[in-house]
Amino acid sequence: MKNEDLFQRTLEALKEIRPFLKEDGGDLELIEITGENVARIELKGTCTNCSMNTMTFKSGVQDAIMKAVPEIKGVEAVNFALN
Question: Which residue range is the domain that position 61 belongs to?
Answer without folding.
Answer: 2-77
